[in-house]
Amino acid sequence: MKYYITTLGCPKNEADSREMDKSLLLEGFQKANSPEGADIHIINTCAFIEDAKKETIDTIFQAIEVKEILKTKKNDQKLIVVGCFAERYHKEIEIEIPEVDYIFGTGLYHRAGELIRNKFQIPLKQNVDYYKVLESIKSPNKFYAPVKISDGCNRNCYFCAIPQFRGNFRFREKSEILREVQELAHLGIKEICLVSQDTNSYGNHYQEFIELLEQIEQISGIEWLRILYLYPDKKTQKILEEIYKKNFKKIVPYLESPLQHVSERILKKMNRFGSYEFFKDLFSMARQMIPDLEIRTSFLIGYPEETWEDIELIKKFIEELKIEHISFFGFSPEENTVAYQYASKVNKKEISQKINDLQNFYNEILKSIMIKNYNKIYKCILENIRPNELHFRRQQSAPEIDDIVIVPFEYSEWKKKYNHLPKLGSFYNVQITGSISYDYLGKIVSNE
Ligand code: SF4
After folding, report:
1. Which of 209, 286, 340, 379 has the smallest count of CB within 10 Å of its CB?
2. Domains in the chain: boundaries
3. How many angstroms is it from 278 CA to the middle of ligand 1?
4. Which residues does a 6 A CB cutoff place in the pocket of ligand 1?
């Protein structure tokens, strides 16, 4: 029985799909290379914002087309929808999309194999080799992996529907996380990205998070450790201080902390912590403590009662703090959230004007940030070999979302110099020589 998983959304979903992979393979299923070649097509969905929901619905309908074509070839493919969208709209999918054969939400990924076997009465295959299963989970040319440390969220930001379908905050046992990281290291993974809805709430005390980091550092084979989604509050401040004091060797100089806004008035309306001054102090402190740090944040634009002055405040913040990586999202009222009551007040046109304005402003700042980085030397990982170029990623850039460094590549010259082929997943020191759009150009200074 062959299956294929289509994964939509964020790195958390990627981690969940990997959990499903493991469960399915351990129950004797085999991986297909495409939805067309699968007996079971699983779509791991996202329902974060309006655009994500649209993408999910489009993907389900594309999958139905594949299923229909296969039916004409006498292949009765099963279509399964799982994840955030499934959790949130279970009933609606059941009623309105009868082509979907099975639906389950979040929190059951580790039992995917068993659930699907039971649903479709597929016999269990005995004696599956655990390590062979692990080997087949890893994509051959990928050297990073998101690892989920907790799920759910208790923060109750008024615009956010995530707690509705991800549930209350709960963290994974440290031993379980460490075992997963060890398995990934065994498979050749070099970079671990810790993901969750709310990373700094891990454990019963923030020290437990620090202990987790210390133990991951001990795992040989893991070279880079990236912490994602630190809610910008005092706990994050303490965690950063602790990271600085303990002089961690593998934590990359990258801080991801979504601010959503800098106007205290809007933050209060969002039921979020913080102010312009607090965020400025937090980011400045992080920059002082961590050399070569780069920061990623996001802003939610167009929240009810936001004015153009509030947009100016965001611009002032960006200019002052010179933030290297920013995403702007438009507010979309989500059912069953506190902010949904303002749905009628949303002015979509104004939201896109504000985002365009901010993006144009930011593009100029970003250009100057990138120019300042010319000639600097960064430790990079080789991620892609193209006929005439090599693609590297800096420690300061998260996979799949941030910049890469493109280095011209000529096979015979390389062979002369190094006497071997470039190896994916190896580390090099790369000097920045220029930039092209949002990416850098560079040259290799040395390999390690
Ligand atoms: S911190 Fe706020 S925005 Fe993030 S998942 Fe929790 S409720 Fe949603």
Report:
1. 340
2. 2-132, 138-372, 377-447
3. 19
4. 153, 155-157, 160, 162-163, 197-198, 231
What pLDDT digit, counting tens, does each position of 266-305 carry? 999 999 999 999 999 999 999 999 999 999 999 999 999 9
Beta bridge partners of 31: 3
Tell me, which fold does domain 138-372 have in CATH? pyruvate-formate lyase- activating enzyme (3.80.30)
Atom of ligand 1 nearest to the CA of 153: 6
| Percent of all residues in the chain with a pLDDT value above 70, rounded to a whole number | 100
Same topology between domain 2-132 and domain 138-372: no
**368-385: average pLDDT:** 97
Does the CA dihedral 133-134-139-141 come out positive or negative?
negative
Substitution candidate for ligand 1 out of 148, 150, 155, 200 with most atoms within 8 A of CB: 155
Ligand 1 centre distance from Cα of residue 364 (Å): 30
| Arch. (CATH architecture) of 377-447 | Beta Barrel (2.40)
Tens digit of each residue's pLDDT (9 = 90 or more) over 25-69:
999 999 999 999 999 999 999 877 777 888 999 999 999 999 999
Domain 2-132, architecture per CATH: 3-Layer(aba) Sandwich (3.40)
- Continuous H helices in 46-153: 50-72, 84-88, 90-96, 112-120, 130-137
Q: Which atom of ligand 1 is nearest the CA belonging to 272?
A: 2
DSSP E strands in 173-315: the ranges are: 191-195, 224-227, 254-256, 294-301
Centre a 10 Å sphere on the Cβ of residue 59 and count the other Cβ atoms it contains: 19
Average pLDDT over residues 410-433: 89
